[in-house]
């Protein structure tokens, strides 16, 4: 077990130093965006990169140190494996049906129509229908975040909550931005 952690850390360490092109000891948005690619070799979108920096940047400086980057590395490996598991046709994109199956495995009981709406919302304009890895990570992470907000309010675990608009926005903004 310790050996596996060591190997993962070495990979993250090597990748960190490759990505840290200005040799500052930190990874910023520009460097992260240049380092992450989808299966069709397109760069990750700015929104997903910024979201990931915000998730792992504990100092709120807009950049990540090696420790934060190592956590991001592990996060990315898990999401990439899940993406590849459900990209059954190996198209490099998750279809509505594939997304529905992935979300169901993660414990979400959502309608096929909702999954299709997500795919339509996050498909690149002019591109093939489906969600690439970067947007898959964005969708799933935002869904997890919104579910956490919902569960905090659903103290009786009924699946229903009552809140005013500002409470909803406060919960969403503090976690998503």
Give the SSE order as H and E letters.
HHHHHHHH
Rg value: 18 Å
Using DSSP, what is the number of strands?
0
Helix segment tally: 8
Helix content percent band: 55-70%
How far is the first residue's CA from the last residue's CA? 35 Å
Sheet of most strands: none
* Coarse morphology: globular
Instruction: Identify low-pLDDT runs.
Output: 1-6
Structure class: mainly alpha
Mean pLDDT: 84
Strand content: under 5%
Describe this structure in words.
- By secondary structure, the protein is mainly alpha-helical.
- 63% of the residues lie in helices and 0% in strands.
- The protein contains 8 helices and no strands.
- Helix 1 (2-19) crosses helix 4 (66-86) and helix 5 crosses helix 6.
- The protein starts with a helix and ends with a helix.
Outline:
Keywords: Calcium, Cytoplasm, Cytoplasmic vesicle, Endoplasmic reticulum, Membrane, Metal-binding, Repeat. It is found in: Cytoplasmic vesicle, COPII-coated vesicle membrane; Endoplasmic reticulum. The protein is mostly helical and 177 residues long.
Would you spell out the secondary-structure blueprint of this structure?
Layout: H1 2-19, H2 29-35, H3 46-56, H4 66-86, H5 96-105, H6 112-122, H7 133-153, H8 165-176
Helix pairs in contact: 1-4, 3-7, 5-6, 7-8
